[in-house]
Amino acid sequence: xxxxxxxxxxxxxxxxxxxxxxxxxxxxxxxxxxxxxxxxxxxxxxxxxxxxxxxxxxxxxxxxxxxxxxxxxxxxxxxxxxxxxxxxxxxxxxxxxxxxxxxxxxxxxxxxxxxxxxxxxxxxxxxxxxxxxxxxxxxxxxxxxxxxxxxxxxxxxxxxxxxxxxxxxxxxxxxxxxxxxxxxxxxxxxxxxxxxxxxxxxxxxxxxxxxxxxxxxxxxxxxxxxxxxxxxxxxxxxxxxxxxxxxxxxxxxxxxxxxxxxxxxxxxxxxxxxxxxxxxxxxxxxxxxxxxxxxxxxxxxxxxxxxxxxxxxxxxxxxxxxxxxxxxxxxxxxxxxxxxxxxxxxxxxxxxxxxxxxxxxxxxxxxxxxxxxxx
Length: 375
Hints:
Blueprint: H1 23-46, H2 57-81, H3 91-109, H4 121-125, H5 141-165, H6 170-189, E1 201-202, E2 206-207, E3 210-211, H7 215-241, H8 243-260, H9 265-291, E4 293-294, H10 301-314, H11 320-339, H12 344-358, H13 362-374
Antiparallel strand pairs: 1-4, 2-3
Helix pairs in contact: 1-7, 2-7, 2-9, 2-10, 2-11, 3-5, 3-9, 5-9, 7-8, 7-9, 8-9, 10-11, 10-13
């Protein structure tokens, strides 16, 4: 008697690509979109100033500034949280985008400056006779948009190409990035570079020929910043859920194993490094017209360290965490610098130490733990 033996043949199932956002995620995204595009403009422009529900111009400027910071925190999460590369020099990319926009805004002043000259006031004061070569396209808004992306991206590509090819990692990479931003800050402090020296650029009057100090323009910049933040968030969600994003996380967890699997980590790290730099450059360009000034202090190492603090406080490798971290820390900074300005830096240091010791997964990690405990 013969028995038929059926062999179980294994079936290979490919992993299903996760959705960019779930149902709850899309619901929260739509709510945020409505707040940025409808609720905030309504509260600022339509609700009378004496009303409890009026959103003041100060609040518009503050939230707009923090949203620029949130874009930087999101960029930091891509390079640090998902790739494992701690950069302490992303402030330089933020400032480069800001200077590109600032140059355009300075040209928009025209002859309305203090010296009634076609040259910016600081150039007249320093007895410059003509615009330097790197100001050639500064009068074109389209060229400015290109430079906002191209300049931080090119600087990041050149730096990252040599750094990653040299296999510089860990604390050494962090120190080098901090040295880069400090060197750039010293360079921009020099008057002969044509970037306004210590004072930088300020006294902006128009953008695209329209007054920049009006309530309507401030709200327009606020909405554009909010839409950019939401757009970058969706892009980051799509990126980290793709094959490219999974390779980045594998590089973070075991770069040597990734190399043995046939992938070249250098190309992946360089690509995400450039993307994060461009995001910071765009944030800097949106920041300048809302704040009204850009100077070399934006390149200080302390600013770049704050990017990392926002990401750590919110929660690395979560995307939404760094955005929350930027709002929490920057909101606390705005409040504490008014009430206890001499204690702000102590608070910032204590916050970073406390998060590192007791909340390694940040605020988002704490919320997840609380939800898990509640069940």
